[in-house]
C-alpha cells in the first residue's frame, strides 16, 4: 500500500490510474480507524478499481475549545488496518500541506448546517465542506464514501455535491455498532469504563424512540421527552440535543410522519457522542 | 459551433472531448461580448484543443439594488462573435439550471474580497467564486481565462483555485481598450454620449497616477488626490474608490513601492465603471 503525504504525490498517483482507465473511490477519514471506517473502505474496494483513503485530522472543523489537539492519532496502526481492508493508497498530509500560509477560502452549505450539530458546533460543517472540497479536487474520485453515523454530515455533503456540480457519486454506509449497540467512534477511546456504560444511553434512547413510534406514537414532543429521560437516567450524561426531524430537510417535526430522523448528541463526561436512526413512518 | 443549455449536455460534450484526449479551455463570461471577451477566447483557442465559453448573467454576484435585470443580453449576437473567435461550444444555461430550488452552497474567499469592489459590493465576490466553482466542476477545463480589467476578480479566483486545489491553470489577459483609452465593458452600453466622454476620466486618472509615480512621487496620498481631482473634474462622475494597493495582497499602501495596483471604481451617471493598472516600482 502506498503512503502519499503531498498533494503532488496524490496527483501523480491519480493521473497514472486515470491513464490506465481505472475508476477511483475515496474514503475521507480523520484516522484512528475502526470497523466503521473499514466498512467504508470495503464498500469502496468492491465498487472501484483504486481505493484511496485520506487520513487527516482537519483543524478547520474543530471549534476553539474542542478536541483537535487531543484527537487520537495512530498512523502506523491505521496503515495496517487500511491495507487489510483493501485500500491502495493512504493520503496523510500535514496540516501545512492542506492549509498553507495565507489560506483564505471556505465552502459553506446554508440551512442544513444551522441545526443539530451545526447549532452546537458553529463553523464545524464549514470546515467539513471545505476540506472535502479540497479532497475532491485533489483526488477527483468517481465515488466518495461517508458513514451514516454522521448523518447530517453526509446530507450536507450531498447538498454541496449537487449544488457545486462535483462530478462525484456520494455513497453512505450504515453505522457499525459494538455488540451492545454503541456506535463506533474514534472518540469512544476517551471514555472511562463507567462512561462507556453511560454511552449506551444513546443507542437505548434511539431504540426507545423507535419503539414508541412503531407502537403508534406520533407526537414528537412525547417521544423526545421519553428519549431525554432515558439518557439522563445514566451517570455523567448531559444532553446537547435530542431531535426528531424531517430526514431530508432536518426541520424539526411536531407530528411524526414520512422519513423521520431521530438524532442525538450527548456529552458523557467530557466526550461528545452522536448517534441517529432513520425511520419510514407511512400511515 | 455548439450551443449547450444544460449541465448534462456540457458533461456529454466534455466527456467526448476527454475520451479523444483533447485539452479544454474555459472562458467564463456574462455575455454581451466585446473585444475583451474575444481576446480571452482567442488566447484559449491558441492554447487548447477545445474552447468552451460560458455565457451566464449570474444573479448571485449582483446586489439587490444592482443591474441584474437590465444587464445587457444578446445571445444571438454573442454566438456569432464567439464562433468568429474560434469558440467550439457556448454554454448558456437558464438561471434555474444553475440555481435550482433549494440551492444552498457558497464558496467564499476571505480577506481579498473585503476591499475595493468587495467593500462596495458586499456578496459580489462570493457570487463570483460560487458560480466559477460550479463552472469549473461542470466543464473541468485544463485552463480558464479571465480579464485583467477585473483585476481583483482574477486575484480572488487564483486564490480560490490554489486554496481549494482545483486542477486548473488560471490565465489572465490584458485589458482591451477603445482607441481613446476607455476600457471595454458591457456596461459602457449604458452611457449617454456625454457620459461616454466623462467615462474617459478613469483612464485619464490612471495615466496621471502612473506618470506621477514614474516621475518619482512615492506618497500614495498625493497620487490618489491628484487622481481624484482628475475624475471629479468631469461631469456626472462620482468616485466609489481610488486605491493604491499592494498588487498581491490588495492592502492599501502609504509609500509606493513594489508591485503596485492603481485601481478605481467610478459612477458615471447611474453606471459604475472600473479600471486599473499595475506598475513595478523598484527603487
Automatic annotation (TrEMBL), chains A, B:
Main subcellular localisation: cytoplasm
InterPro entries cross-referenced by the UniProt entry: Cyt_trans-like (IPR004821), Pantoate_ligase (IPR003721), Pantoate_ligase_C (IPR042176), Rossmann-like_a/b/a_fold (IPR014729)
Binding site for ATP: 30-37, 147-150, 176, 184-187
Enzyme class: ligase
Binding site for beta-alanine: 61
Active site, renumbered: 37 (proton donor)
GO process annotations (BP): pantothenate biosynthetic process
Binding-site residues for (R)-pantoate, renumbered to this chain: 61, 153
CDD domains: PanC (cd00560)
Entry's EC annotation: 6.3.2.1
A molecular-function term among this protein's GO annotations: ATP binding
Subcellular location(s) of the protein: Cytoplasm
UniProtKB keywords: ATP-binding, Cytoplasm, Ligase, Nucleotide-binding, Pantothenate biosynthesis
Chemical reaction(s) catalysed: (R)-pantoate + beta-alanine + ATP = (R)-pantothenate + AMP + diphosphate + H(+)
Recorded superkingdom: Bacteria
Keyword set includes Cell inner membrane: no
GO-annotated cellular components: cytosol
Pfam families the record matches: Pantoate_ligase (PF02569)
Entry keyword annotation includes Methyltransferase: no
Alphabetical list of NCBIfam families matching this protein: cyt_tran_rel, panC
Family: Belongs to the pantothenate synthetase family.
Known function: Catalyzes the condensation of pantoate with beta-alanine in an ATP-dependent reaction via a pantoyl-adenylate intermediate.
Subunit annotation: Homodimer.
Further remark: The reaction proceeds by a bi uni uni bi ping pong mechanism.
Protein name as annotated: Pantothenate synthetase
Source organism of this protein record: Neomoorella thermoacetica (Clostridium thermoaceticum)
Amino acid at each position: 500500500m502506498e503512503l502519499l503525504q503531498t498533494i503532488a504525490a496524490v496527483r501523480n498517483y491519480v493521473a497514472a490510474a486515470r491513464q490506465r482507465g481505472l475508476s477511483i473511490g475515496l474514503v475521507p477519514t480523520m484516522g484512528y480507524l475502526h470497523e466503521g471506517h473499514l466498512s467504508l473502505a470495503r464498500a469502496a474496494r468492491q465498487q472501484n478499481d483504486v481505493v484511496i483513503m485520506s487520513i487527516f485530522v482537519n483543524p478547520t472543523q474543530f471549534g476553539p475549545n474542542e478536541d483537535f489537539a487531543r484527537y487520537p492519532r495512530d498512523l502506523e496502526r491505521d496503515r495496517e488496518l487500511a491495507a487489510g481492508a483493501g485500500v491502495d493508497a493512504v493520503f496523510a498530509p500535514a496540516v501545512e500541506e492542506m492549509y498553507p500560509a495565507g489560506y483564505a477560502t471556505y465552502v459553506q452549505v446554508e440551512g442544513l448546517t444551522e441545526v443539530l450539530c451545526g447549532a452546537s458546533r458553529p463553523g464545524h460543517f464549514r470546515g467539513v465542506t471545505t476540506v472535502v472540497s479540497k479532497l475532491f479536487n485533489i483526488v477527483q474520485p468517481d465515488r466518495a464514501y461517508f458513514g451514516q453515523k454522521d448523518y447530517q454530515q453526509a446530507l450536507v455533503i450531498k447538498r454541496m455535491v449537487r449544488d457545486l456540480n462535483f462530478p462525484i457519486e456520494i455513497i453512505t454506509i450504515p453505522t457499525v455498532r459494538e455488540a451492545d449497540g454503541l456506535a463506533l467512534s474514534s472518540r469512544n477511546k476517551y471514555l472511562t469504563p463507567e462512561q462507556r456504560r453511560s454511552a449506551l444511553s444513546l443507542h437505548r434512547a434511539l431504540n426507545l424512540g423507535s419503539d414508541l413510534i412503531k407502537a403508534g406514537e406520533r407526537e414528537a414532543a412525547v417521544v423526545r421527552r421519553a428519549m431525554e429521560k432515558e439518557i439522563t437516567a445514566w451517570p455523567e450524561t448531559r444532553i446537547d440535543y435530542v431531535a426528531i426531524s424531517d430526514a431530508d430537510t432536518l426541520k424539526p417535526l411536531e407530528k411524526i410522519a414520512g422519513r423521520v430522523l431521530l438524532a442525538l448528541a450527548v456529552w458523557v463526561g467530557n466526550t461528545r457522542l452522536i448517534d441517529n436512526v432513520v425511520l419510514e413512518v407511512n400511515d
